[in-house]
Amino acid sequence: MKNAILFAALFAATAAIAAPAGPPLMSKKDNNAPINISSDSFQADLNGETGTWQGNVVVVQGDMKLRANSVRMTTVNGKADKVLANGNVVVDSPKSGTVTGDSGIYNVGPRTVAMSGNVVMKKGKDVMRGAQLTVNLVSGQAVLGGGVKGAAQGNGRVQAVFTPNSN
Questions:
Q1: What is the C-alpha to C-alpha distance for residues 59 and 73, in angstroms, rounded to an integer?
Q2: Which of 57, 75, 116, 157 fits as disulfide partner to 146, beta carbons 3.0 to 4.6 Å?
Q3: Structural domain boundaries, residue 59
Q4: Looking at the 3D structure of the chain, how many domains does it have?
């Protein structure tokens, strides 16, 4: 069981890199590249089939990098099920750009990603903002939502700024 959780943790970390992001989700990456994870601490719950990295978590695979305050991975029967990144989530790829948000969830089975809380996607000078981002990694379809209207939640609209090429 212990080896299954550690193996699933590494598998899930691969998904975590792809998970909480807009443009980086659509980029091609090498799923077989080594995965490096560093954090202030790691805790495994063998009975609950979870692994949690806490504090300054950095997950790197190839040119993709995920940073978050914590990353929690759950397994079902020793196989990765969900990867949850929380707190100052940043997914960065030099080729695809950067996506930030408060939290992100990668559901391994259906290969879907949900990012929420102040989602910002940047590539070069282009920027998109919303409250939640949902991406289906199988179909490549993505939806950016604006959230609820109100002073605390923003204006409820998706915002974008695109800068045309100077050439």
A1: 13
A2: 157
A3: 2-161
A4: 1
Q: What is the CATH number of the domain that holds 128?
A: 2.60.450.10
Query: Does any domain span residue 167?
Result: no
Interatomic CA distance for residues 115 and 71, integer angstroms:
14
> Could you tell me if residue 122 is inside a domain?
yes
Question: Is the pTM here over 0.90, yes or no?
Answer: no
Q: What is the pLDDT of residues 106-126, one digit of tens each?
A: 888 888 888 899 999 898 889
Q: Is residue 41 part of a domain?
A: yes
Q: How far apart are CA 69 and CA 93, in angstroms?
A: 19
Are β-strands 142-145 and 159-161 bridged in parallel, bridged antiparallel, or unpaired? unpaired
Q: Does the residue 11 lie in any domain?
A: yes
What pLDDT, in 10s, does the model give residues 83-111?
899 999 998 888 778 889 999 888 888 88
Non-local (6+) Cβ contacts of 147 within 8 A are 130, 131, 132, 153, 154, 156
